[in-house]
Amino acid sequence: MINSKTANTIPVSAVFFDIDGTLLDFETHSLSASTVSAIRELKSRGLKVAVATSRPWRTMAEIPGLLDLDLDGYVTASGGQVYDGNQKLIYDASFSIPQLRQITSLAVQNDIPLYMAGDDILITASTPLIPAFLEKYHISIDGVHPWNGEHTPLVTTITEDTDNAIRVFSQIPGLLLVKGGPVNVDMRPDGLDKPEGIHRLMEHWNLPVQSYLAFGDTQIDAGMLQDARISAAMPWADQDARAAADFILEDHRENSLSEWLKSQGFITGEAKDSNREKTGN
Q: Which of 262, 238, 226 is nearest to 38 (CA)?
C-alpha cells in the first residue's frame, strides 16, 4: 500500500479512468463539471489522459461530452480495441467469428440472453431484466434478435444466475469470464484485459508501460489497478477493486475523483470549466 502522503511524488506519465461507476456514476450517468475540469488540468500538466472501459467504441462515443474532452486515447472492449487520440484504431484483438459462433450457440442452448455490441447493438433474446440492465449502464440497443454474424467486440450475459453462466461458457477454450455486475458476466478472449490494451497505448506514446495512474470500481478493473504504478478505487468499489488498489477514495459523490486528485497534489482544482453544469444534462 502506497503512503497517501507521497502519492504525487511517484512519477506517472498518464492517467486512465474506467467509465461506468468511475467517470460516470450510476445515478446521473454524466460527467461532472469537477471531473471535466480535473481532466483538463491533468492534460495541461503534460499527462496523457485516457479511458479504459469494457464498452466498445460505439457505446462509449455516445456518452454526452466524452469525446469533447479530447482525450489522448481510448482502451475499449476491455482491452480488445485501442484507439489513439485521433480516434484511429491502433490495436484489435477482440473475438474471432468462430468464438462468437460458439458463444451464441451455447447461449441459445442454455436460454441465456446476451448483450452484444458491435456496429449493431442487440440483445439476443427477450428477458424481463433488459430495462434495468439498459438503465444501469445508460445504453440503448438496436433491437432484440439473434446474432447476425458480424464482428462484435463486446459480449456479456443478462441473467440473474451468473454462476450458471460462468459454468456454461467456461466450456469454450480460450475464453475469460469476469462478473461485471449482478446480472452480467463479461466475456473476452483469454489473455486480453485492460492492462494489455493500456500497454499498447503506452507503447504507442513511447512511455514506460506501467507509468500510469488508474481509477476503477469493479472486478473488471482489478487487473489495471494492480498493474498501474498508482491506483485508486472509487468509494463504492467492489471487494476485488478495493483489494487491488493502493487507495480508496473518500465519498464526495460526483466530486470524488477531483477531490482525491487535489488532495494528492495532482491538480490544484483552480482550473475553470466553461460548462458549470454537468456535461450531458
A: 262
The pLDDT confidence band at residue 172, using thresholds 50, 70 and 90, is: very high
Q: CA–CA distance from 132 to each of 44, 127, 139, 184 (Å)?
A: 39, 10, 11, 12
Cβ-Cβ contacts under 8 Å for 169 (sequence gap 6 or more): 103, 106, 157, 175, 177, 185, 187
Positive or negative CA dihedral for 162, 138, 31, 73? positive
Question: Is residue 37 within 8 Å of 273, Cβ to Cβ?
Answer: yes
* 59-91 per-position pLDDT tens digit: 999 999 999 999 999 999 999 999 999 999 999
In angstroms, the CA 37 to CA 276 distance is: 10
Scan for cell 484511429, then name that residue. 88
Burial class from Cβ neighbours inside 10 Å (0-12, 13-18, 19+) for residue 88 reads: exposed
Q: Tell me the helix, strand and coil percentages in the chain, rounded to 5.
A: 35, 20, 45
CB count in 10 Å sphere of residue 64: 15
Distance CA 217, CA 214 (A): 10
**For the whole model, what pTM was predicted?**
0.84
- φ, ψ dihedrals at 226, nearest 5°: -75, -35
Residue 202 identity: M
What pLDDT was estimated at residue 137? Answer: 85
Residues contacting 5, CB < 8 A, separation 6+: none
> At CB < 8 A and 24+ separation, what contacts does 252-260 make?
253/25, 254/25, 254/28, 254/32, 254/34, 254/35, 254/278, 255/32, 255/34, 255/35, 257/17, 257/22, 257/23, 257/34, 257/35, 257/38, 257/215, 258/32, 258/34, 258/35, 258/37, 258/38, 259/34, 260/232
Bridge partners, 74 (sequence order): 51, 83
